[in-house]
Amino acid sequence: MQISYKPGNSFLYSLNPLIKGGLCFVLIMFFSLNGLQLPAMAGSLVALLLFAALGRLPLADLLLSIRRIWFLLVIVGLVQGFRGNGFEVVPALESMARILGVFIAAGCYLTVSPQSELMFFWETIFRPLRLLGLPARELALVMVIAVRFLPVMLSEIDRIRMAQIARGARLGKGGFFSSAAALMPLMIPTLAQAIIRGEELAEAMEARGYRVSGNRTRYHRFGIGFFDIPAGLAALAVAAIAVWSRMP
Amino acid sequence: MNAQLELKNLTVSYGGKAVAENLNGSFGFGRLNLLVGRAGSGKSSLLLAIAGFHTEFSGQILYDGAVFQSAGNFSLTFQDPESLFFNSSVGDEVEYSLRMRELPESEITPRAQQWLQRWGLDPENFYQRHPFELSGGEKRRVALAACTVAMPPIILLDEPLAGLDANGQKALAEMLNQLAYEHIVIVVTHEPEVFLQSDSSVLFLREGQGSWFSGNEFLRQAVHDRDFYPLPRWYCHAMAPFAAAPSLPPVNAEAVASFIAREKKHADQL
Amino acid sequence: MIVLDKVSFRYNEKSETSFKLKEVSFSCPKGAITGVIGGNGSGKSTVARLIAGMIEPQTGIVTVDGFAPFNHTGRCGFLAGIIFQTPDNQIVGTTVAEDLAFGLENLGVSYDEMQVRVRETASRFGLGDMLATPVHYLSGGQKQLLCIASVMIMQPSWMIFDEPTSHLDPWARDSFWHTVKTFAREHDIGVMVVSQLAEDLQHFEQILAFNGGSLVFNGPIAKLRANVEQLPWFRIPDAWKLEKILEARP
Known about the structure:
Low-confidence stretches of chain B: none
Largest sheet of chain B: 6 strands, mixed
Mean pLDDT of chain C: 87
Helix content of chain B: 25-40%
Shape of chain C: globular
Low-confidence stretches of chain C: none
Radius of gyration of chain C: 19 Å
Order of helices and strands of chain B: EEEHEEEHHHHEHEHEEHHH
Structural class of chain C: alpha/beta
Shape of chain B: globular
Strand content of chain B: 15-25%
CATH topology of chain C: Rossmann fold
Oligomer: heterotrimer
Distance between the termini of chain C: 45 Å
CATH class of chain C: Alpha Beta
């Protein structure tokens, strides 16, 4: 039910981290920006799920994890559905399909990518930023720590939520209208915990010789494999469809 | 007060696997109810099942003969309860629970202050302070006070002593013992020795089974067999010659010393 | 040998009250398990961080085997590794192998050597067939082993444990001490354990005790025990109290 790395063995796992990350990026862009109609959108969602099934990903887990964002889905559906003259179902469903697509694409990516690959991808992507004087490695590190803590933080939020409800907090009961104030008992402790954990992790990394500016070697070597070329072409095709669908 | 929290054929599962099977027994007033076992033995799942957050169980949880309605009738804290703070003063923190239960405004502050006093914190001194200024032991007491201020019948505490130094642990254990006269207090702990009195009730979860012990039986088993439960070595060592005695003393030096003196005297008389 | 010579440290240099350590001096040879004890805010954790090279003393000198740990980010051997209380907050990798490799990557160890050392260390710690296992699948005990292994793989000359037992169940505490003692015996490695649990005292041979940022006791545990009445900051453990009472009786 958690979105985090799960070991496995399929062509998706064996992709070069750059192709893997690029493909995920293109898919996310595709689902957020394309100009397709609802049937085509639903079709691409199904295609994405088929693709994931082909890569032997635990689909049941992925679909179950959608529970975690149902709230967001409903809100987006409501906001998008209300038009000048009442509620329309089609735009509501369309926008929900977009969110679902982004969520599933990202979920698949995180399931097949261990930390070293994420780090490699982000460092490579951010490398050009170094020319502008931006701290590329630090940025990569921030992204990786965020992903590393995702499962830990989710269970932490669960614990805090239960304990605050036991204190009488009404979280989520106010429905969509619950004000920000009602969420404070959840937000502040979660944030505080995240900061404490982040600090402790940073300390532990330093203690193991991590210096941001240091010259590191790598445990993994990433080459170009058999599936990387078709995957790269697929990414290009998806990008092309997105652009084409937006053409006037 | 005679009401009990009763477990009837309760089997708690986690992810489709039974972690504690067929529990039968009850938690009562007047003494602490300790819940012990290794990490991963299902202690937390049982606690959450009682609280109504964990629904993967079969069998029944009864309170005073009827199915326990958890909503509003329990308080629950996890390890490091001070991580729940979100207000800028101790007073607001303690009052929060009362406010959410919509008590009349005039009753809230007096009740919160009185409750804080109960936990050994003088409201005069503490009410306006920021929770993060306090020492570790004070923070812990504020957190427990804030979680229990609505005075529900059932109080569930997961590792309330963890991270405190020895003095803080002793003082807090004493307060929890007092609390047990008015509430059913269930404590998950890795340090049962700090709480154990001969009349405490211990539910020991291991290998999927739960066994109930009186404090005395638990101590005796542990002295007899370190694999059963690793109590502090000095206690097992000191008690080894007295394993057959009808009642063993609590785990602290003074009690053990006077116990040994009594036993010696008794042996001399024979 | 760890040497601190008139070391002071404070977090905020401007304020006089923020002293964490005041002119602390001691030397600590390898070969015995050293316990660092003291209450909250006594300065014991600051000492651990100074030795591990995570912070730099404002005045005075810290050396480990003759090198200053803060400036020694070392390719020629790692000085002192530190292991913190919560495994979840110090495991960096998403898999066991990645976490083991993290320290070696930082030291700049070559690809081939890294493969060998990761495999070898993993099997030594009983994690050999879990190299590809995601860390969140591990049990609490396995996570702690991984933390120790991930530091040991860097071949430090000292291991510092910062309150390692305070959140463990009693079985895990027993097995933690078993592991640590086995290591101390089998490797040429110094072990220092920061702890405030009375139960841990029985495992220490040497004691460094701190109170309010000062070193208040330095010596073998037997000496601490003999002088325990003159040390008002020290809470006498039940085990000693009992023996004292029993000795006093005829």
